[in-house]
Amino acid sequence: MGADHTRSAPPTPPGVRRILVVTVVPLFLATLIAALVLWPRDAPRPEAADDAPRYHGTVTRVVSEPCPPNPAVPEGTPTAAAGPCGTVTVRVQTGPDAGQEVQTPIPAGPGAPRVEVDDDIILVSLIDPEDPSVSNYNIAEHQRGKPLVWLAVLFAAAIIAFGRLRGLAALGGLAASFAILLTFVLPGISAGRPPLVVAIVGASLIMFVVLYLTHGISAQTSVAVLGTLASLVLTGLLGLAATGATHLTGFGSEDATTLSMFRADVDLHGLLLAGIIIGSLGVLDDVTVTQAAAVTELRHANPNFTRRELYRSATRVGRAHIASVVNTIVLAYAGASLPLLLLLTADSRALGQIVTSEFLTTEIVRSVVATLGLIAAVPLTTALAVVVSTAGRDDAGTSTSEPTPVVPRPARDRAESLRALSTPPTRNTSPATSSGWPDPDRSTDTTW
After folding, report:
1. pLDDT of residue 47
2. Angle 219-245/195-215 helices, nearest 10 degrees?
3. Are the beta carbons of 92 and 101 closer than 8 angstroms?
4. In whole angstroms, what is the distance from residue 446 CA to residue 33 CA?
5. Are 63 and 117 in contact (CB under 8 A)?
6. What average pLDDT score do residues 94-119 get?
7. Which residues form a coiled coil (predicted)?
8. Phi and psi at residue 412, in whole multiples of 5°?
9. Strands (E), 205-332
10. Is the model's pLDDT at 80 over the cut of 80?
């Protein structure tokens, strides 16, 4: 997460560093204490499912054949032509029949995998309820372990090859993010903790670890941390107000409804707010790091910028960034919900009813709240970065402790200047050294 800005920032005055340490360290300690208090010590364990045994196998032969007519279905209907039909020969790799070849029917139906020879698949052993001693194999799905491993290796290799040590740190931050999500945020919500509080604490913990691990411990990173933390809290409050004003319950998707059947104690309204906060964190830290770096670079490029000029210049960078990020957020939410959005286009209800439905209103609130949080992050982070980068200097951009003396420009006679411009340059003919080579210490600049 975040942008890469490798140029070292100018040294921050000791007083400003002390103020940042006094501000950031207590916030980090408060986040750790809150995480320890909310840590899910009594999280419910997943119930042991009575699933059918699953084994690995490799397809060695596929034989297709016409499907027999189904007398229960009228001829000519789409269901009557359901298929494909035939048998698949599979060499079993694990389980009691390892090394043997078994026959299974070709998978059919919506979402059934399409198998070919040499495909690595997963077999499910189904026991006949009338005769428990009889079992049959069916193909459940493809094995995806090896492709996922190769994708992960390619992903890590590309990041490390391009980012080197910074890329390695980014991978460490990504691992830390997933570790916090899997060990604190998700179990905490499952244990009945307030989802909004758990999400803010978990996102803050991710932010501290990822930003300092990826971008190093510096005043610039501390500014991004403070801007991100303030924007996260503001995003949570905006989400709370928006979901309350639109009377969202959190049951806007089939997944939420299914979750309520298995975990009736989970607050789905709070879970909706938690999703907004976690989803906006990745873009938030990118915006805040970019704004802090933009202020530092502008200050380095023109030390004579006043605070107002520096703020306005960095804000223009933030506007361009926000303009592209807004489209990213909306398209990300739309892409994740594309099947349901496509289903809504076939809805015969009026457009006003569709837009104000629970599902579509939820997606609108997600996008609007996340965008408002990002917009607020730009002026907050920029203002803080301007204060930090100009600390110890007056508003004209010079140091307040040691004013720069103004050296008057020596006056020259006009005739002398014209004569110097019209005279051709003379070559510096310094004597050569004893070895015959010119003196290496002499200047190679021509004199006018």
Report:
1. 60
2. 160
3. yes
4. 68
5. no
6. 88
7. none
8. -125, 150
9. none
10. no
